[in-house]
Amino acid sequence: DNDSLAPGRLVSGTILRRTDNDLLIRLDTPNTEGETRAILPMAHLTDHPALAEELMNMNYKPGKKLDKLLVLEKARKRPRGSISGNKLTAQDREITPMIVSLKPRLILEAESGRLPSSLSTVHEERIVTGYVSKLGPLGVFVKFLNGLTALAPRANISDEWVSDPRQHFTVGQTVQAHVIHVNHKLNKFIVSLKASVLNNPKPADQLFLRSFLAEQESIAKAKAKRNKKRDNASPAGEVTWNIGQVCTATVLQLKEYGLIVELEDDGSVGFCMNENAPTELPKVGSKVECRILDIEPCKGIIDVTFRRTIIEAGKQSMVSKTVFNERDEKTECKAVVEIVKASHAVISLPELQQTLALVPLRDYNGKIPGLGGLNVGLNCSAVPMFREMEGTRISEEYKGTPIMRIISDNQMGQKKVRARSESYSTDRVKLAVGSIVRVQVRDIQKTNMNVTLLNVKRKKKYNGCIAKVHCSNVIDPSSLTGISDSESVFAAYSVGSIFEAKVLKIEKVIKGNHKGHYEVSMSVRPSEINGADGKVINESELTWEKIGDLDLSKPVVGYVNKITQDGIIVDLSRSVRGLLFCTNISNDLEVLEKLFNNVNGENTGQFQVGSPIRVRIVECDAEFRRLDLIPVD
């Protein structure tokens, strides 16, 4: 009954005990008799589910003081056992403990009074912030203060078709929701988690990325401190560099995918992708100048660039914050993508002395639409995001680095094609191999995207044909740098998207539900759309008859088709596939368990059906159509 402990209030406390999944907190309640305790679930330590376990293990020990805890649910008494009569005695009740949270976004919403606590505070068309309390076949249940709960039906949790909500969300995840319908009679309301109705990108993107980087840094520092105590040595995980710094490095190794260097002063290891390497590669052992693009303190990865224009600008005085702020949030800046990570991209701003800036690629509900295939070297336009959140901690290595959002429609090859949809010719095109036609996405599957042909003149026999884009025909292999091994190449597409595609093959279906109809195989690779001459054998044209034309000593890009107990079935093209044996990945059972977590043919720990993977062919039998593969690095 203490008002200071009501849902939505901020309190402080001390950690008493830690279990596998939560923390027991003793709250500081000077005006309350006795000791008040609360539960802080592990999922409520952060807005980033992937960091929760490490944060709890590294940063939250018994005795630690917590200054800003948000009360989500007050302690409740509930009946237990069989009760006779209408009255309950103290012995007949058990206590549901008070629940508190440390999620930065929920705390911010509570401080501004925007976190709903009752149905009377919920209105249609409003965007509200909550957290996932339950996942089921019906959809996602989103909880707010004081147990207030909404349902996001399965059809309203994503702009793409969803078969299992558990593949998109996790229990405890912070989400933002758009209120669709409020039923006061039934005391229920329905929300949507679709990015298309949440007015993305939002100012919240900046808080999401800032808190992610700060929490990564805190984990790295805790690990470094632990290693220092254990080994009595200097902390290897301690970051001594900042984004945008120019330094001298020694080339250690030249790899197919880039250069590995050692930074002077502290011996940190840096990596430079081929896209940021000089045309004439330096020799091993030579000293070169580079500029730091990004730092992943938890993994000890420092990304650098050798581009001279970026380096020379970095030697000069940095653009002051006041000069940068002269551009308001509606003023566009020309930008170039320098590096792409899972959570963010780093861009350079040529108009502002090559200042480096961050671009969020994810928000609370998942990936930000349209940025899944961002490529290194892409020219685009961006606007600043200046709404810094009060109390947001900034990680040391990113201090002074502005955050921006990309607003141009040419974020990747296929996006550029789609952006020109209004200027497409209305002339009808003959359906033939090699034709460039206009298509619209009808449905997206794991390894195929079904499309409808829009401006096509076809023979009568082609009526009712099925048009498909295989995952191997979406992005050029040279542009896969920004795609992670757990990300589908279809991430940038959604149902209803319109773009151009090239007809690769037309063949009659001889079995299955579509027997007798024709299947049209298509490609949306930029190299195909922009008029590739077709003389070079690449994976999109690969067949068993032409597999002998491949240089088997060079790696190729494949796409995960299925996960089995033996390994991964990998598509090299729409007609050629091979097997990557699990023993060819690792002989360490612990590593294999992590990589092949919950094998069910579709979803695993690291590998996702439809995601790209670089492999090398070690054995080929074209007659029996058998390929044995090994992973590259």
Layout of secondary structure:
Layout: E1 10-18, E2 22-27, E3 36-41, H1 52-59, E4 65-73, E5 76-79, E6 93-96, E7 98-101, H2 104-111, E8 127-136, E9 139-143, E10 149-153, E11 174-183, E12 188-192, H3 204-231, E13 246-255, E14 258-263, E15 269-273, E16 287-296, E17 301-305, H4 308-315, H5 321-325, E18 333-340, E19 344-349, E20 355-360, E21 362-363, E22 366-367, E23 379-384, E24 404-406, H6 413-419, E25 429-430, E26 436-444, E27 448-453, E28 456-457, E29 466-470, E30 498-508, E31 518-523, H7 526-529, E32 556-563, E33 567-571, E34 577-581, H8 589-595, E35 612-621, E36 626-631
Parallel strand pairs: 3-7, 15-17, 25-28, 29-31, 34-36
Antiparallel strand pairs: 1-2, 1-4, 2-3, 4-7, 5-6, 8-9, 8-11, 9-10, 11-12, 13-14, 13-16, 14-15, 16-17, 18-19, 18-23, 19-20, 21-22, 23-24, 26-27, 26-30, 27-29, 30-31, 32-33, 32-35, 33-34, 35-36
